[in-house]
Amino acid sequence: MRRKFIVGNWKMNGNHASLVEAQDIAAAARARPDIDVAVCPPFTMIATMASAGGVTIGGQDCHAASSGAFTGSVSASLLADAGARLAIVGHSERRELSGESDALIAAKASAVLAGGLDVILCIGETLEIRRGGDATAFVLSQLAASLPEGLRPQPGRIAVAYEPVWAIGTGLTPELADIEAMHGAIRGALGPAGPEVRLLYGGSVNAANAAAILKAADVDGALVGGASLTAAAFVPIIAAA
Ligand code: PGA
């Protein structure tokens, strides 16, 4: 049985003044021992939020190397040392803004698993690709090219987040039937590991649409950006799971 998994991605937002939000989110997470809740704050907040407890803390990215001369980068072992238990890799903002390739993302995902953290691998199509009718083929090719090798023995440690690029931060979401079709295709493409991998939907999830999305077939959780920044917005999504 796959437990529901609700993850907040704070992106480049959140500082010590946000700890009050984090405390309220942690209280809501503690009240739901039947599901998993995580928050991925900026690197600068990981240690503080992890030591406050109550909610799993993750990184938003991870370098593919374990250590070395990589100015400005953070490795899986550094994330773990700060108290993180998981890391997101392959977010579309990193793919687009930092030019990250599928091969680099696969290497990052492997590094996350090797460092003892769980991984959330993001994939998703642009509006142009969706309009061209090629969304499923595109997403499955992205999945195949960015899946870490380590998935096969440890499928329970990876979640795949389907995040259509055009739905992120726009207030637009796909039809439920389109989410179900894509998640079903991703699950199928994962082969024998499919039943153990949690599939998250991400892109403009909010308190109003969360219940319906989280009930959709093959949706095991949500990756939430804007609506995870305050407890007022995020707690109802946790409650909807
Ligand atoms: P959003 O972001 O919920 O603000 O659309 C989701 C994400 O980028 O993970």
Q: In terms of per-residue confidence, which ranges show pLDDT below 50 for 5 or more consecutive residues?
A: none
- The number of helical runs is 10
Strand order of the largest sheet: 1-2-3-4-5-6-7-8
Tell me the radius of gyration: 16 Å
Write a concise keyword list for the protein shown above:
single chain; binds 2-phosphoglycolic acid; 241 residues
Notes on the structure:
The protein is α/β, with parallel strands linked by helices and 241 residues long. 39% of the residues lie in helices and 16% in strands. The protein contains ten helices and eight strands. It has helices spanning 19-30, 43-52, 76-82, 92-97, 102-114, 127-131, 135-146, 176-189, 210-215, 231-240; strands at 5-9, 36-40, 56-59, 86-89, 118-123, 158-162, 198-202, 221-224. It has an eight-stranded parallel barrel with strand order 1-2-3-4-5-6-7-8, surrounded by seven helices. It is globular, with a radius of gyration of 16 Å. The mean pLDDT is 96. The site of 2-phosphoglycolic acid has 13 residues, from strand 8.
Give the helix/strand layout.
Elements: E1 5-9, H1 19-30, E2 36-40, H2 43-52, E3 56-59, H3 76-82, E4 86-89, H4 92-97, H5 102-114, E5 118-123, H6 127-131, H7 135-146, E6 158-162, H8 176-189, E7 198-202, H9 210-215, E8 221-224, H10 231-240
Parallel strand pairs: 1-2, 1-8, 2-3, 3-4, 4-5, 5-6, 6-7, 7-8
The structure holds 2-phosphoglycolic acid.
2-phosphoglycolic acid (PGA) is lined by residues 9, 163, 168-169, 202-205, 223-227.
